[in-house]
Amino acid sequence: MARRRTRQPQFDSRDDLLDGAGATLDLHGAGAAEARASVRAFIATQGRTARGSVVHIITGKGKGSANGAVLRPAIAAELRGPACAPLIADWARDTDDGGFKVRLR
């Protein structure tokens, strides 16, 4: 089966997705596998309790990782993945590039 490639949505500075968020998940100190599981649970819970809201997922910029950012690409892949994508309307990197803002369906 061919893997479908999806692009990250693009937003401009006027988009309200880049404004404040209702709930925040901070993944500092988590490994990639733990972070991906936490994001799936967080998106599922917020999708049930806060439909249509914007949530913030903090990954950090990867400055503490010897080989560059680990969490940011892992979480971007998770947001595009089959567990999260159906629950998400839009998403983008946050304004300081240390995480993501996600609008739930």
CATH architecture label name: 2-Layer Sandwich
Q: What is the percent of helical residues?
A: 25-40%
- Structural class of the secondary structure composition? alpha+beta
Backbone CA Rg:
13 Å
| Average pLDDT, all residues | 83
CATH topology: Ribosomal Protein S8, Chain: A, domain 1
What is the strand arrangement across the widest sheet? Answer: 1-2-4-3
Low-confidence stretches: 1-5
CATH class: Alpha Beta
Quickly count the domains: 1
Shape: globular
Per DSSP, what share of the residues sits in E-state strands of 2 or more residues? 15-25%
The ordered H/E elements are: EHEHEE
Could you describe the 3D structure shown?
- The chain is an alpha+beta fold.
- The chain has one domain: Ribosomal Protein S8, Chain: A, domain 1 (2-Layer Sandwich).
- The protein has two helices and four strands; from the N terminus they run E-H-E-H-E-E.
- It has a four-stranded mixed β-sheet, with helices on one face.
- The radius of gyration is 13 Å and the shape is globular.
- The termini are far apart.
Question: In a few lines, what is going on in this structure?
Answer:
With 105 residues, this protein is of the alpha+beta class.
Write the layout of secondary structure elements.
Elements: E1 23-26, H1 32-49, E2 54-58, H2 71-80, E3 88-93, E4 99-104
Parallel strand pairs: 1-2
Antiparallel strand pairs: 2-4, 3-4
Helix pairs in contact: 1-2
Q: What labels describe this entry?
A:
105 residues, Ribosomal Protein S8, Chain: A, domain 1, alpha+beta, single chain, 4 strands
